[in-house]
């Protein structure tokens, strides 16, 4: 049974899950931080939806049942090292980063069975100016890839049910990760490149066509690799984006506003090399990549 929980990363996703867990009665949850962050975070509490959750920060302690890594990709390597004192043979690790790469990096250190593939999606959480705001809590998707992971997946289902955290078990979690990657290569990159919110990619708005074209390029690469992404998947993402707050910002657009390096390596810079190996043209992804790299030069 999962009782003790640690979160790495106090940004848009980490703060959302930390807040939900506290609000729903899970009081054995901590944020794993380095000493500098512990001092800084305790001196400057984080505002979440206008309130200040009583987050607890730790640099050391006993092992945990579940660790959720919610950092940016640039912080993943440090996070993998920081969680080491909190991991035992039964600890479940969820890497809540975008893309299809972070689990493999975690597994190099902690093994395949400890790291359960997951996706967080559908939330509109925004982290700007030391404050987090959200209205959609989204959902967390996960699934087993081996028989040895089945018991951990069952533990996760019981845990998220107990604390009313929306979740969904996936029969094919790898396909679902590619599906989410398709969305991110569209919505994250288009909003970042043009510095607009979700509204810019909603129906009858100027960047929806580019948003869809970017997704279609990912779909083509995925299908060539034997991963079934369909036109219906694209339509479902269009409808999801239509349901979000127009002023809300995906994570990459938040990074651009805050002058932070983006997660471009997880998006276009993952797909474009694959496409070239398959002789697939990706002009939209390449254009978005160039635009974002140009913006990052000023950081």
Instruction: Report the CATH C-level class of the largest domain.
Output: Alpha Beta
Helicity, as a percent range: 40-55%
Q: How many domains, in number, for the residues?
A: 2
The CATH superfamily title of the largest domain: NAD(P)-binding Rossmann-like Domain
- Following the backbone from N to C, one meets helices and strands in this order, namely EHEHEEEHEHEEEEEHEHHHHHH
Distance between the termini: 44 Å
Portion in beta strands: 5-15%
Which shape, going by the Cα principal axes?
globular
CATH architecture of the largest domain: 3-Layer(aba) Sandwich
Q: Which whole number gives the mean pLDDT?
A: 96
Total helical elements:
11
Structural class: alpha/beta
Please name the CATH topology of the largest domain. Answer: Rossmann fold
Low-confidence stretches: none
Output the radius of gyration.
19 Å
Oligomeric description of these chains = single chain
Number of strands: 12
| Adjacency order of strands in the biggest sheet | 4-2-1-5-6-7
Largest sheet: 6 strands, parallel
Please tag this protein with its features:
single chain; six-stranded parallel beta sheet; 2 domains; 44% helix; three-stranded mixed beta sheet; Rossmann fold; alpha/beta; 11 helices; 299 residues; N-(1-d-carboxylethyl)-l-norvaline Dehydrogenase, domain 2
